[in-house]
Amino acid sequence: MAWILLGIAGLLEVVWAFFMKQSHGFTRIGPSAITLVAMIASFSLLSISMKTLPLGTAYMIWTGIGAVGAFVLGVALLDEQLSVMRIVAALLIVSGLILMKLSTAS
């Protein structure tokens, strides 16, 4: 169950990062509100998952999902640059996440 909660927490990190960008420095109410609600939910689920998962594993997986997810959304929805080096960087993050999951007993 901790892994599922951690995955949801990571996806919520992508949500809040995307809407933080859309908030234009917290000057737009709707995106700002979504950012704050998603942040609170993401942190809460991360906290719950950390009750049984190791700190380093939980935090790395959470930030990794957020980083790769934000990269994908940026490219897909915000017209951000896509290059071979950026793709390789994202793949290295995903590889690290897989290795971290495989090396954790919980």
UniProtKB/TrEMBL annotation:
Stretches that traverse the bilayer: 27-46, 58-78, 84-102
Family from the record: Belongs to the drug/metabolite transporter (DMT) superfamily. Small multidrug resistance (SMR) (TC 2.A.7.1) family. Gdx/SugE subfamily.
Species name: Sphingomonas alpina
Protein's GO biological process: xenobiotic detoxification by transmembrane export across the plasma membrane
GO molecular function: transmembrane transporter activity
Cell location: Cell membrane
UniProt keyword terms in alphabetical order: Cell membrane, Membrane, Transmembrane, Transmembrane helix, Transport
Membrane-topology descriptor: Multi-pass membrane protein
Name of the protein described by the UniProt record: Guanidinium exporter
Pfam families hit by this protein: Multi_Drug_Res
GO CC terms, sorted: plasma membrane
Keyword Metal-binding (UniProt): no
